[in-house]
Write a structure and sequence with these properties.
Immunoglobulin-like, mainly beta, about 375 residues, 3 domains, 5-stranded antiparallel β-sheet, 7 helices, single chain
């Protein structure tokens, strides 16, 4: 199958065969990203045709073309999809199952819009856009408390924001419950208190407050209960949840007393692939535990390949030490520091080590 760039090379255009149509900044950004992904890195043949195609595509910065070839036109990625613009692999079909909200708050000449939201039972993913009357720079950050979920005993979040045009930005914010609990409806609250220009170190304070509810997608959880252990570190794959848009792995780490005395930090990452060779790289949802060694985690990946029969998970453990200068923690009670803790490992200057545990393999047929 020819890629998009090759299809443009095969098109013979006459001036009367196309007309200019208006497009949004998001559509232009989506098109540019898709073209960059499909353009070959180097190609010496047909260079004249490539220059023609590049000239045509260069004219798409303000307009796009409505070709008289509907097959080609229908394949142009002009859907207003912030999910896939920012991460096509993880959020490939989120738009299809998301709920369109279009909630707008204006303050200080800045309009923030909550565009779409999706709740998979554990994590809320929200797309949003920012439009300003004054230049804020390329790198900006939303200030204020993180987006929160009512009813979850603990939560963690992340935010991704990018500029798509002058004074226009789009982003994805995520918040998850961290102890494996599921809910049928997410009640979301997000109070934005300012926008900071990270390059100029200036901040515009204001109030952009949002509250909304969103039902969960269908999901099915399957018990796995398989583990791998090496040198005092054990990783248990507890369960896997499948939704129409994602796969969620729930796992925990158990660290022996001897390891805790030697190392300040034990970090577990999962390398996930299937029997077809597909690798799955997703996003962590945070974790919760009684201490910073023995922790329950969850990680969201894209949907599994429909023809895969086995999932192969390789736990990769990083052992690292900190010293009292570079790392520490404090316990607070009613806004007062009640205790200060410093690392207790006996090898503060020791170089980090990596443990690769044995693979954990399970048959996907058992999940159906």
């Amino acid at each position: 199958m020819k890629n998009l760039y090759e299809r443009f090379n095969d098109i013979k255009l006459e001036e009367q065969e196309y007309k200019e149509l208006p497009v949004t900044d998001l559509e232009k950004a989506q098109l540019k990203k898709s073209l960059k992904q499909h353009l070959p890195k180097t190609r010496k043949s047909k260079w004249k045709k490539q220059l023609i195609a590049a000239a045509v595509l260069g004219g798409l910065s303000a307009t796009t073309i409505g070709l008289s070839f509907p097959t080609y036109a229908s394949n142009l990625p002009l859907v207003g999809n912030i999910f896939t613009l920012l991460d096509e692999t993880l959020y490939g079909n989120y738009k299809e199952y998301s709920q369109e909200l279009n909630l707008i708050e204006n303050d200080k000449g800045i309009a923030i819009t909550i565009n779409d939201a999706l709740f998979d039972g554990e994590t809320v993913s929200v797309t949003y856009s920012v439009q300003t009357e004054q230049p804020l720079g390329k790198d900006i950050m939303l200030m204020g408390p993180p987006m929160s979920l009512k009813g979850f005993s603990a939560g963690s979040g992340s935010d991704q924001l990018t500029q798509i045009a002058e004074n226009k930005y789009v982003g994805i914010a995520r918040v998850s419950g961290m102890d494996g609990e599921k809910q049928d409806v997410a009640n979301v609250k997000w109070n934005i208190e300012g926008i900071k220009d990270m390059n100029e170190e200036r901040e515009i304070n204001g109030n952009w407050n949002f509250a909304f509810s969103i039902p969960a997608t269908n999901s099915t959880m399957h018990e796995v209960q398989k583990s791998s252990e090496k040198d005092g570190v054990k990783v248990n794959i507890q369960s896997i949840s499948q939704t129409p848009v994602s796969t969620i792995l729930h796992y925990n780490q158990e660290v022996s007393y001897d390891v805790t005395k030697e190392w300040s930090m034990v970090d577990v990452q999962l390398q996930v692939e299937d029997d077809l060779g597909h690798e799955y790289v997703g996003q962590g949802n945070g974790g919760i535990g009684d201490d910073h060694y023995n922790i329950n985690w969850s990680h969201t990946f894209e949907k599994l390949h429909p023809e895969a029969k086995r999932l192969i998970i390789t736990p990769i453990v990083e052992l690292r030490n900190f010293d009292a200068i570079s790392h520490g923690s404090a316990t607070m009670d009613e806004n007062k520091v009640t205790s200060i803790e410093t690392p207790t490992s006996t090898n503060a200057g020791q170089e980090p080590q990596v443990l690769i545990l044995d693979e954990i393999v399970f048959e996907l047929d058992t999940l159906k």
